[in-house]
From TrEMBL:
Upper classification of the organism: Eukaryota, Metazoa, Chordata, Craniata, Vertebrata
Gene: CUX1
Region (Disordered): 1-85, 201-220, 286-359, 375-410
UniProt biased composition (Low complexity): 9-22, 29-46
Full-protein interval shown: 628 to 1063 of 1063
Compositionally biased tracts (Basic and acidic residues): 329-340
Provenance organism: Oryzias latipes
Protein name: Homeobox protein cut-like
Record field: compositional bias (Polar residues): 206-217, 346-359
Amino acid sequence: MQPWLNGDQGQNAHIQQAQNQAESTPKTSASCSPAPESPLSSAEESVNGLTGDPLISQSSLKPPSDDPSGGESQPGTPLPVPGHSGLSIQEMVAMSPELDTYAITKKVKEVLTDNNLGQRLFGETILGLTQGSVSDLLARPKPWHKLSLKGREPFVRMQLWLQDPHSVEKLMDMKRLEKKAYMKRRLSSLSDGHLVDGGLPGSDYVQGSQSPGQQQLKKPRVVLGPEEKEALKKAYQQKPYPSPKTIEELASQLNLKTSTVINWFHNYRSRIRRELFIEEIQAAGGVGTGSEGGSPSLRGSKSGEGDSCDGTESEGTAETRHGLGIGMEDPRGCKDHDMEAESEAGGSNNSPAQLDCTTSGLAGPGSSCGQSGLGLFGLTDASSGGSASSTILPASGPARNPRDNNLRKKKAANLNNIIHRLEKAASKEDPSEWEF
DNA sequence: TTTTAGTCAATAAC
DNA sequence: GTTATTGACTAAAA
């Protein structure tokens, strides 16, 4: 129904299924093409019917915060409620004040854990996202100012959800319903004498657009081996943006498809970048300072932990990174435009101080990073006081696995290397010499 | 056309 | 069973 969900494809198919709705939404891997009848919409309806779409239900729970000017919102000012305020979620997103994505995700994680609610359920029901996306989002939220409108939507939804005093209740209900539906299906399939293996929700819509006989045409997932990854990383370190020729070579040397190599570079760049966002926050003394010592999200959200230079380097390193426009870790920083983008993002600037503000998401619109904090649901405190990170600078954080250690070392070395090159580069006029 | 952002979904890890 | 990781894909921006 809501137009803003159109692009979301069949994500909510699960939900529908959970409710025993037969209708399956085409969702082939290539099915990213928007489903014509906006699967989500119906899903949303169904969700609404049950738990009430948080985005709407809230309208009945919250005094509509009249202020569609959202942008003005003071710390702690709840977002206006879509539905009630006559705003679509998209509009809300557009006019939403800067949100503290870290605080939000922290709080969400907390609530989910405390109530034993899974990411899948939460994602499908509240955000219209799959479990993996939710996990990612919760673990590595990007700072608000670096998010596109679309990227902000889940955070707005999360905030609305958190604002809803009955959010947990509703989700619990949903959970129960899902369970019930599942049992029902199971029962009926048993009594029908056939186990609908693939027929269980999920599998049929995954390949929904294919006829049953074609199901096995599913493309097997490529899993890169450690050596391959290693080689790719090395290549990346030398050239984060390899030429087509290089890609070809890599592909043939590694015996991979060029598209795989291309994808790998895309993904790697993007993920490195994201890790850096978090490091920024941490280095900045970021959001909430870690009361939760263990806040899984910022708990170094692994970025801090395993992946970043922080691990092995002193804070000095972090500072250095900052000074350099951050993002130095990994060659990613190699590309100047990247660095620019980074330091410039959000319209604010590289002045470390400012950076701190904005990146931490603490700054209210145009505020002194002071405290605006947009303390969502009183999160501000939590966030500024406690959440995360910096304190947990994983310098000592136990690596989760050898891979992390490895990475850490590598990145630390890499960082030094890059800094060195940057320093050198800085003394050169000719950018062409900046090539890494 | 290339790159990025956002996401899905398979599968690995816990 | 849940969460994390990651290759692949789409859409949009540059």
